[in-house]
Write a structure and sequence with these properties.
36% helix; 20 helices; Rossmann fold; 2 domains; 509 residues
Length: 509
């Protein structure tokens, strides 16, 4: 074990002057302290669905827990309208610089801690790369710093007057935190949520020294992965429990096809009862009779507002009114999302009377292919390369069917957004899509990763569209089907309670 880690092995991981975690008999029980660690938070910065979950799940848990969010101090965080007060400091280690901790108290009571380290986080672009989509070459330093900060806060080294009972870390950018804690023999239990196993946070084995890792980090049973270090494998190997974002995906990742090379270790964790799937919910802003983004609001009883939103989308995207259905793609334009499958069946879909509206950005070749499709079908296909929240919501409200032919989809949120707004998702039977869509009731599912199987589902949709009563009945079922976060969060509370009960007692308790 390196000297840096040996120096901070603690018998009392949190300050002894904090209130006891398990109060004496007869004393009122207090909420458990949970530190939720993430690289995205939609209030400030978002690259994908992780940002939405990181903003919604902690809020849903506020009633049951003293939950706080830790994320990097990006410019979007520190320059937001929410005041940021420096409340703590963390020492550096190896190549990880010292940093301050800023506290932001949001209007709804949620507390956010931001790591203030300009040399790592004061950059324009996404959380992971520049404006041209190139990843930052020091991402291993940037997110090891985030992970070490979480471990240090759990160890009481942050100067904060608050210390978590449990860490909940998300995806590879925070996944090194459970490993840092294990190497320092900290007793704080941890949950790792895998939102997408395909992103693993790899760096060369030679980075051990600059990240302050022990020699054992380079072993296969720790974080070595095909000759590199994997942040995600470190979390899988060392977290107390692993969750992923749907029960089907939790099963899929223990197999070779979806396991991304990690199916062996994930199978071991599942056999020990340490891997489970918890399906996402959606927040209350996705309510069509209240949403201020929509041109006209509506509900499951009065669906006329969908027509007004459709008229707006037709004008915005230069579509001609038609008798056939309006299909939509609201997605990153990447291979995983099956965009090439949609391109493959587009000619037949349009020939059968369908129209298509697309919003999103992603891989340049798929962006260009979508632009060419719009050029080939003026008035029938409209494409916007980019993303706008208001337009996306209006497209969900306007469309009859949402296309999600994903090759894999850990959970997916878009299908639930579409359902809430009365747009029936057409999706592959995989991951969270299989768990949130009832085929023929709240959407349509197809099995095979082929244009033929996909177009069979499109043909079913075209047939359903010919029967307005059936279409409206399915819309009403779909609008009632997605879970609210308040319901989806309950399994997390049960998991936290179980892990805290199993955690070894600490000396200060």
């Amino acid at each position: 074990m390196p000297d840096q880690l040996a120096d901070v092995r603690l018998e009392e991981p949190c300050p002894s002057n904090l209130p006891p975690i398990f109060p004496a008999e007869g004393m009122p029980k207090r909420h458990k302290r949970i530190l939720f660690v993430t690289s995205e938070f939609t209030d400030f910065v978002k690259a994908g669905g992780l940002g939405d979950v990181s903003a919604a799940l902690p809020r849903a848990l506020l009633a049951e827990h003293d939950i706080r969010v830790l994320l990097p101090g990006y410019p979007q965080v520190l320059q937001s309208a929410v005041a940021c007060k420096v409340v703590g400091h963390l020492p550096g280690m190896a190549a990880l610089p010292a940093c301050d901790i800023g506290e932001l108290r949001l209007a709804d009571g949620l507390v956010v801690y931001a790591l203030i380290c300009p040399e790592l986080y004061d950059r324009h672009g996404t959380p992971y790369g520049d404006d041209q989509g190139q990843e930052w070459p020091d991402n291993h330093i940037r997110f090891a710093r985030l992970s070490l900060a979480a471990a240090d806060i759990a160890a009481g080294r942050s100067e904060l007057s608050w210390c978590p009972d449990l860490l909940h870390v998300n995806d590879w950018p925070a996944a090194l935190a459970p490993a840092y804690m294990a190497w320092r023999e900290q007793a704080t239990p941890s949950v790792l949520t895998i939102h997408n196993l395909g992103y693993q946070g790899s760096c060369p084995l030679g980075c051990c020294a600059e990240l302050g890792l022990p020699d054992t980090a380079g072993l296969p049973e720790s974080m070595e992965f095909y000759g590199k270090l994997s942040f995600l494998k470190a979390g899988i190997s060392h977290a107390s429990h692993i969750t992923t974002v749907s029960e089907t995906y939790a099963r899929e990742i223990t197999g070779e096809k979806f396991g991304c090379g990690m199916h062996g270790v994930l199978t071991q964790r599942r056999r020990r009862g340490q891997l489970s799937g918890i399906t996402h919910g959606i927040d209350g802003s996705w309510t069509p009779n209240l949403d201020p983004h929509l041109v006209e609001r509506f509900d499951a009883t009065h669906l006329a507002g969908k027509r007004r939103n459709a008229e707006h989308v037709e004008r915005q995207f230069g579509l001609l009114p038609g008798r056939g259905p309006l299909f939509a793609v609201v997605s990153r334009l990447v291979h995983q999302k099956g965009i090439d499958l949609t391109l493959a069946i587009a000619d037949e879909m349009i020939a059968a009377g369908g129209r298509l509206v697309v919003i999103g950005r992603g891989e340049p070749e798929l962006e260009q292919a979508m632009k060419r499709l719009a050029e080939n079908y003026p008035g029938r296909v409209g494409v916007h390369i980019g993303f706008d929240e208001t337009e996306a919501r209006r497209i969900f409200a306007a469309s009859d069917f949402l296309l999600m032919p994903s090759r894999y989809e850990p959970c997916g949120l878009s299908q639930m957004y579409a359902q809430r707004f009365g747009s029936l998702p057409i999706a592959r039977h995989t991951g969270g899509l299989a768990d949130t869509i009832v085929d023929g009731v709240t959407g349509l599912l197809f099995r095979d990763e082929t244009p033929e199987s996909y177009f069979d589902a499109i043909s079913r949709a075209l047939n359903i569209y010919r029967y307005p009563d059936l279409l409206d009945a399915m819309r009403r079922k779909a609008m009632k089907s997605p879970l609210r976060w308040e319901d989806a969060a309950r399994p997390y509370t049960s998991l936290y309670q179980r892990l805290l009960q199993q955690a070894p007692a600490r000396a200060f308790r």
